Amino acid sequence: MKLKVLTIGAIFFLGEVVSAQQKRKDTISTKEIEEVVVVAYGKQKKETVIGSNVQIGSDNFKDRPVTNVANAIDGAAPGIQVSAGSGQPGSLPAIRIRGFSSISAGNNPLYVVDGVIYNGSVSAINSLDVESINVLKDAASTSLYGSSAANGVILITTKKGRKGRDVVNFSLQTGISQRGVSEYDRVGISDYYLLNWEALRNGRLTTGASATTALANTWASDNLIGNLGVNVYRNVANNAVVVNGVVTGDQTLKYNDFDWSKPLFKTGLRQSYDLSYAGGGEKTTYFASLGYLNDQGYLVKSGLERFTARLNVESQLRSWVKVGINLAATNTKTENSYNGADNNSAIINPYRFSRSIGPIYSPYSHNADGSNIFDSNGDKVYEWLGARGANASPGRNAIYERILNSDITRANNITSRVFADFKLLKELKLSIIGGYDLRNAYNREYQNNILGDAAPAGAASRTSENTYSVNFIQLLNYTKKFGSHNIDVLLGHENNKYTFESFYGYKQGQVGANNDDLVNFITPTSLTSYTDTYNKEAFFARANYDFNEKYLLSGSIRRDASSRFAPDKRWNTFWSAGAGWRVNKESFMDNFKFIDEFKLRSSYGEVGNDQGIGFYAYQTLFEYNNNAGLPGVVFGTQADPNITWESNNQFDLGLDFAFLNRRIRGSVEWYKRETDGLLFNVPVPMSAGVPSNNVFRNVGAMYNKGIEASLTLGIINGEKGGWDLTINASTLKNQISKMPNGQPEIISGSKKLMEGRSIYDYWLRQWYGVDPSNGDGLFLLDPALASAPVAGQDKQINGVWVTNRAARAKYDFSDSAIPDVFGSINNEFRYKNFTLSALVTYQIGGKINDTNYALIMTGYPQGRALHADALNRWQNPGDVTDVPRFDSSLASQYDVASTRWLVDASFINLRNVTLGYKFGEDVTKTLGFSRLDMFISGENLYIKTKRKGLEPQENFSGETTNRFTPARIFSFGVNASF
Q: Is-annotated flag, keyword Ribonucleoprotein (predicted)?
């Protein structure tokens, strides 16, 4: 076999492929050039599209174990950042398109399903029902959605039937899920006792409570077990566990079941079955599907069970009228992690608990001889009443509480779309589209009466939420060709009404066992309900023009209104204009036969944002209250009646290219997004008496800009196989250009907002290091305090003023959570009937504030686990290390937020690998199939980070939390058609 081999930087032709093969490639190239892509309120030829529109076909994710279809976007295109969804099956990942348009308002993209704005749960959409996903990134592509489009738009198009022979498809997937991010390395039992002993001994010396080291050693030995609560060694006296800095005794353990993660984390099972029927005749096409998914998470008592059904029908009733209906119904049961996996500060957060509890504590109770205690069912009895150190959550047991508590949500989702197209004239079409989305969710929570927050009474709650979304769209489309001139004009009107109903009830005082219905509880504590509504209306128009598909022009305008704003503020106009030039269509390019596509395009426009500010942003709200049985009204929310849209102005400049029969193709884009009239949650003085001490106002400005590049290389393209390599890379710069009047800076956690800085620049105490002479942890001294240094706290080292007191430390800007470069690398290999794809996502630069690591690097543990880096602590004068001495009197000084905990956020993640095999006709015909494929696939297979246990893709702010980390999934599947 003769191959064409393409290497980066040079092209080597090692032979010629047969003429028939070349013709086949030319046919494919033509098909690609004439590809039609989904755009706002319609479709358009790909070569005439001016905006930044990325289309992800179903072939890219049909064989992946994707429970939430939005996960298929990760790594698919440049300019899109995806924060990995949690390990909770079905969770929605956070997505940012070209940076961050707002500080206090929403940054989530708009989802549109089958042409209608979608307010339902994305996890309710079966990924095998999806034909394509389009991500609209610039104003030229998003502006028709006006006030909803500041954060980009994600168009999801479901499958339809096609004319011809009916096809039945069956898909089966089964696999397992495991914890995808490893735990931090932590010290073992002996080292743990020793480090706690050192903290007590050094603290005794620092405070002067012991005059000599010998006395401090003895005191630490006598108080070690009293401080920690547990001596796990057999035949070793409590005061002899550590003597003079040495762990003594025979060190034989009384028991050895200290692993809290083993009972919490398991191997989850994932299985899905999907059946679809598609086809059609001359007038009617149809697609129907049924799907079942059972995705049991790797965390105990987590999972998603989902039933889906879909029916899409289109019919050409007459030559001048076409109608269609898309109906989808989903029923889900989600078992959640009650008040734990997504609650960073909860005591029973399973990640925080298992990560931070010392290695000397067992989840189970034991007899005096060390044997386990069993209950009447033969199960091990859990321990929570025994002695523990103050930082080991005495009186709690995350495993047992997970078993006793429950949090289950059942939801029904109905999505419906109906349309009618009327051909009024040959060039004129009227479309009427209706959409109705309904979601009913019923959540039941139970808190046990044995241990935990609700003990000894026990408690239960019920939450019922109903969401209704009604859309009505009318479109008038005029398309005309005048010789080489092509015009396409769209006029439209859209109404959207969103209603949210909520009911919540909470009762305490459990009566009987094994019944968590509210009737089994006697004391009502909370009972409330409310209804929120949100209405939008818009008039819009778009005009596209091209001359011989060579010179391209596009313009759009939308007049939008939102009920979030006052009547005189709610209307605004959004627009865009764009131009393109397909240089390869020019006559002077005729001699450059190797150039298939060379298109320059540019656009500018304005879109809006009204997310994240509540439904009644312009109204000051009051709340009813019960005051000793008497009704009352309390101040709820202070509003600015002049609040209005956040305006996002976008400029985009792009180049699309393809060479050598599209064996080299890609794009380069530069963009700038400027947000004006920022919806800013402005702090106000406490003396103003405003609840939450802030008010939403339109103040400030910010911009994002960056470069996006995508390159696909057909490295090998032969008769029997091939290799395609796609590389995506993006840069992002974010900067605040204007702050609220009178508030040049606002400090929020580890960040400070001010002009000239990014919203994710860190503002932290400046860590200097460890003093080799005495092991003190040192910060840079606040320059304002250097004129009056405090003896024993402040001093100069090499001419630099430093301090061992956090309160005297210098604050300053220190790096950013935003990476220098991020992107993906995708390899696709083909050989005969085999295919292999490997997707790698990566990030270079940026910092993470690793507070999870800080939690287990304290210099005075008191029952809290310790990272293995603690073994590098300072011990003797002259030691050079970055870990201060363990000292019970000073540890709290060094545990505070500072640059000590910033770590490089670079990573490389093997996101997906899929190996597939397509059986030949000799096998499929024998078995009665028209197509038969099998595959194995893996998600989140490997991640390399600066520190084991670190999760750089957790969020965009660079703050770590104790969260339900993503799952590593292995899956086997079969696709059959007949």
A: no
